[in-house]
Amino acid sequence: MATTIAEIRKSAETKMDQSIASFKTNLTKIRTGRANPGLLDTVHVDYYGSSVPISQVANVSLLDARTISVQPWEKGMGAKIEKAIRESDLGLNPASMGDLIRVPMPPMSEERRKEMTKLVRHEGEAAKIAVRNLRRDANEAVKKLVKDKHASEDEQKRAEAEIQKVTDRHVTEIDKMVEAKEHEIMAV
């Protein structure tokens, strides 16, 4: 059990990096006025009895800044994909043009933009809480080492300062991501 302070810090940092990666993924799902192929990642379509993401049965790309194109790999999938997109909670209205499905992004109202920025802030706060919880867990692990006489109190102080620096760096990164996403949402 006697892990070292360095291992505790490294483990906390790795977990904080994972929290940020998860936050980034959540941010891509929040709609802005611009088209983003990642927006359809949450939409699943029935493919021979199993529910799979659209990206596994079609090529999803951008036609322009406000239009996503979906090119099914099999002839019969077009109608199923179109239906799945229309029935998703994304509020999108796809249109078929032969084999190609165009998914235009409707312009967002000012009120909807404000709702989205609130959602971004909420996600950011949740990510910061996750990072702070990891800091607390790491500090508790260091205190346990001191209690079990595997580390000195001076080492504990240094370790807690290092863990705080790592935490601050991650929180700052989350704040920057929130700010960038809010700017992207509010840009008309």
Task: Explain what you see.
GO terms for molecular function: ribosomal large subunit binding. It is found in: Cytoplasm. Responsible for the release of ribosomes from messenger RNA at the termination of protein biosynthesis. May increase the efficiency of translation by recycling ribosomes from one round of translation to another. Keywords: Coiled coil, Cytoplasm, Protein biosynthesis. The protein has four helices and six strands. With 188 residues, it is an alpha+beta fold. It folds into two domains: 103 residues, Topoisomerase I, Chain A, domain 4 (Orthogonal Bundle); 68 residues, 2-Layer Sandwich (Gyrase A, domain 2), CATH 3.30.1360. The strands form two sheets. It has a four-stranded antiparallel beta sheet. Strands 1-2 form a two-stranded antiparallel sheet. The chain is elongated and about 70 Å long. The N and C termini lie far apart (55 Å). 26% of the residues are buried.
